[in-house]
Amino acid sequence: MNVLEVERLNIWEERTGTLLVHNIAFSLAQGECLAIVGESGSGKSLTCKALMRLKHSGVLQSGRIALKGIDLAQLSDKEMRKYRGRGLCMIMQNGMRAFDPSRRLGVFLLEALAAHFDWSRSEMTFRLSSAMLSVGLNNPPEVMRRYPHQLSGGMLQRVMIALAIVLEPDVIIADEPTTALDTITAYEVVEQFVKLRERLGSAMIIVSHDMGVVRRIADKVAVIKEGELVERGKTGAIFTGARHPYTRNLVSAKEALSRHYKQLMGGADFADG
Ligand SMILES: Nc1ncnc2c1ncn2[C@@H]1O[C@H](COP(=O)(O)OP(=O)(O)O)[C@@H](O)[C@H]1O
Ligand SMILES: [Mg+2]
Fold first, then answer.
1. What percent of the chain has pLDDT over 70?
2. Tell me, what's the pLDDT at 184?
3. pTM beyond 0.85
4. Among 9, 37, 46, residue to substitute to test ligand 1 (most atoms within 8 Å of Cβ)
5. DSSP label at 75?
6. SS (H, E, C) 158-219
7. pLDDT, tens only, 59-78
């Protein structure tokens, strides 16, 4: 059975009725990673948020979003909250916006866990600390004492990944997780995502316009243009034989990060590995 099935997803502007995302469909098997690619403004973020039913002011959605066979569209808002975090967990582009700026990270993280588990405070702290250590945050007590603005973008991404490790979600959604990071940090964060998948076996959706990232992590690719899915296929096939000119452009608009990878890795050609 597929972990996630999306059918006829439409998203439109309430006031004008303008369609922003039109009839998108895809599915995700256990442990599978789908990359959603497309230029800025094509509807990638709207699609991600729609999966979690995160309301956008002035925007409505319809369609079937089935998580392990349960249609999320049929759930009450209260029921839906239970699925955010453990069912679908979103790792956002901008860590600064993902966390409450006025609260220490530890307070935020413990609260996020308390909403899903009956663990004691020390149990939660222990699990968070181990997860933080595993993603290279070497001083968990210090990280938990900090406010979001006191950490770099790369560290905040790691905090979100650590939280995902503890939550063990069915589906991880990462919306441009490396866009705000410098190349080396982006490289490290992508490697953390690869490890995260191996470790949890979660299905994953990653939005990226970096085809190097896509090639490194995704099993299959969906290409969105102006709110429509114009092409999809296995990652290898997309790179070697994309049908749509738009996809071919994306692929040939060269893999900026992959070139940096090669430099970082001392010339090893990861892209063909
Ligand atoms: N709340 C909103 N109300 C109206 N239009 C929106 C809203 N949010 C996004 N849009 C529009 O929907 C389109 C897709 O946006 P988005 O999903 O953020 O694009 P992407 O993530 O692919 O860059 C854009 O044209 C954007 O202007
Ligand atoms: Mg976006």
1. 92
2. 83
3. yes
4. 46
5. S
6. HHHHHHHHHHCCCEEEEECCCCCCCHHHHHHHHHHHHHHHHHHCCEEEEECCCHHHHHHHCC
7. 999 999 999 999 999 999 99
Rounded distance between C-alpha atoms, residue 69 and residue 78, angstroms:
19
Would you list the DSSP string of 102-169? Answer: TS-HHHHHHHHHHTT----HHHHHHHHHHHHHHTT---HHHHHHS-GGGS-HHHHHHHHHHHHHHH--
CA angle 234, 235, 240 (to 5 degrees): 100
**Closest ligand relative to 21 C-alpha:** 1
- Contact between residue 27 and residue 232 where contact means Cβ atoms under 8 Å apart: no
121-136 pLDDT per residue, tens: 999 999 999 999 988 8
Under 8 Å between Cβ of 203 and 217: no
Extents of the domains making up the chain = 4-272
Q: Which protein residues have their CB within 5 A of the ion that is ligand 2?
A: 44-45
Considering only CA atoms, give the Rg of the chain: 18
Determine the topology of domain 4-272 in CATH. Answer: Rossmann fold (3.40.50)
The closest residue, in CA terms, to atom 5 on ligand 1 is 13
Of the residues 9, 18, 20, which should be mutated to test ligand 1's pocket, given the most ligand atoms within 8 Å of the CB?
20
How far apart, in whole angstroms, are the C-alpha atoms of residue 269 and residue 195? 20
Nearest CA to ligand 1 atom 19: 41
Contact 194, 161 (CB under 8 A): no
Ligand 1 nearest-atom number relative to CA 207: 21
